[in-house]
Amino acid sequence: MPADALSSALLPAGLHDVLPSEAAHEAAAVERLLAEFAAQGYRRVDPPLVEFEENLLSGPGAAMSKQTFRLMDPHSQRMMAVRADITPQIARIATTRLKNEARPLRLCYAGQVLRVKGSQLRPERQFTQVGVELIGALEAEADAEVVLLAVQALTAIGVPHLSVDLCVPTMVSRICAGLGLGEEEIRQLRGALDRKDAAAVAAVGGPAATLLESLMSASGPADRAMQALAALPLPEGAEKDRRRLTDTLALLRAAMPDLTVTVDLVEHRGFEYQTGLSFTLFSRAAGELGQGGRYRAGAQGEDRGEPATGFTLYMDTLLRAVPAAKAPGRVYVPHGSGWESARRLRAEGWVTVAGLAPVGDAAAEAKRLQCGHWLAGGDVKPVG
Amino acid sequence: MPADALSSALLPAGLHDVLPSEAAHEAAAVERLLAEFAAQGYRRVDPPLVEFEENLLSGPGAAMSKQTFRLMDPHSQRMMAVRADITPQIARIATTRLKNEARPLRLCYAGQVLRVKGSQLRPERQFTQVGVELIGALEAEADAEVVLLAVQALTAIGVPHLSVDLCVPTMVSRICAGLGLGEEEIRQLRGALDRKDAAAVAAVGGPAATLLESLMSASGPADRAMQALAALPLPEGAEKDRRRLTDTLALLRAAMPDLTVTVDLVEHRGFEYQTGLSFTLFSRAAGELGQGGRYRAGAQGEDRGEPATGFTLYMDTLLRAVPAAKAPGRVYVPHGSGWESARRLRAEGWVTVAGLAPVGDAAAEAKRLQCGHWLAGGDVKPVG
Prior knowledge:
- Chains A, B: It comes from Azospirillum ramasamyi.
- The structure is a homodimer.
- By secondary structure, chain A is an alpha+beta fold.
- The first copy, chain A, has three domains: 202 residues, Bira Bifunctional Protein, Domain 2 (BirA Bifunctional Protein, domain 2, 2-Layer Sandwich); 97 residues, no CATH class; 53 residues.
- Chain A is built from 14 helices and 16 strands.
- In chain A, strand 15 and strand 16 form a beta hairpin.
């Protein structure tokens, strides 16, 4: 929602009142998404808006430190933080309160997050995150499940022209490490790859240059990309990433043959804390709708914590891609018609708007109150 | 949810993780309440979690000042406040962004609020508020509409043994002022009435003593209370309150003859900012579920701003009174059963839990994953 002059005077930048039709639209979409998650066994949890800073910003949460508002807790005299991301909270719940629940553990959530600064792409400082986490499963089947679930849920709420971009953000570092490149060279290469700068990749790539250039040019529609990738000689560590990509894609194809899938073999940005197969969800109409991928729940580093994957959807972008449901018809029920007659209309699916005092022209009053119909005698009549 | 040892170590006092079954229970109840509000023409708005302090804590919002966390906004360099109550935000939206919408304006909301301290009665520092505001209507029909809507919505989510306690928190001051008592005497009388201390009322009541004692002893079941009230000689200002109480009760009786209604003629606590007919919603099982009443939206004082009424429900108390819906059956779908067979089961209303790898004993695996059933060949079988 673009801030109008009035709201920008009243509210801090990046914070908005969500007004009637849009608020209902968002609420309906969130509930439908959560219903899709629940239907596949994902159970809802609701962590609090605020936690102790040291818990919320440890491990993967540390990435959001600069984006996080702090509050002093007068009760404990400790600093608290307002969540800027819900994912670390779900990982915390899974690895503490629910650590004795059977694995894989399937959890989902919806809630508000608050950030210190908006970005150019997303000026909002508060938005609704909706997502799932699948904790304790290492299989490619788990990677495929969360991608398919995201696609299924987004399709259910009416997102058109959906596509999934798969990546394995660890692959480039594994290739470089396998070919003996040092940390500083890898960092420089990352920059060049992020800019899709083939000349710079060639210049600093050393023994990895040819391979990385091939990865860059192979990125695109999934089948072509995987064919090109299959022909490349990869060091051992990266071979694991290639196998996971191949297996996951096969599972996606088997479940949803018509899904548009692309593969980006050098993608890295936005996946700094991912440890394996990752993905971005796109709609041609609205751009990026959300992202997800593998991480370690409960601790950082590849061999610590529990294997986990999941995704987060950003409702602000997403709603731009989704048509609002048709609102049910509004009937003006004139003063004195009685509670029971209004109740009957609601049971038939109407929204009733009660007249609180007698009026001369009920049809005109209905129109003034944005009702398309009014109750005349016992009949619902359209407004003139 | 009582904090267990683990959560109290992890989270600040009064803040909780809402765990699976409870989170779904709350979400379903909130959505059902909002659907009931929407069916009577109340449209949802979602104000932000955070606003400029000077806006959020002006007017009726000032009451929550000590309960409100502050944040510095690095963008504007102004202080922001985390909402401790949603009602003032809805009044702000109605009188600014929606000031040109037709009156009466019907709005509803659901959201989280955060408070600096819990109370003895409600140790939680974060909870969900759900409510409605009816703005721009002076009629008794408006008072009755919000009471009836609250009752209807609470009944729809299964609250048993519901009762409504009506009061007019302005009546005592109007009686005292009408009989010439000063501010200090009124303040002392308020204290005595709050303690239901008849002796103190007699001692400090002066010319109002007899009348106030009659009001105290008349409080109780509505019909008896109203009969007693009708016989009392009231000063002019209080006469208006009596008439409103009588008219509203008559409207409630006409719509819901079986509703349990009590009247408290001296109630005042918790209604400091109310300017007319007010009410508390009770369930025998869970106690106080919410409250509401008349106020002035957009400004304080009886003759400023717009006339408004509404109510707020507290989900934490409320859920204790409401049985959770039966969860749909969970079916374990063994590895290799295929996406399509799981999809078919979901279409039949099952929750599907996919096996991510082959297992020897599918029935045992189903049980381990809290599924009551598993898919064997094409058939859903109960677990052992």
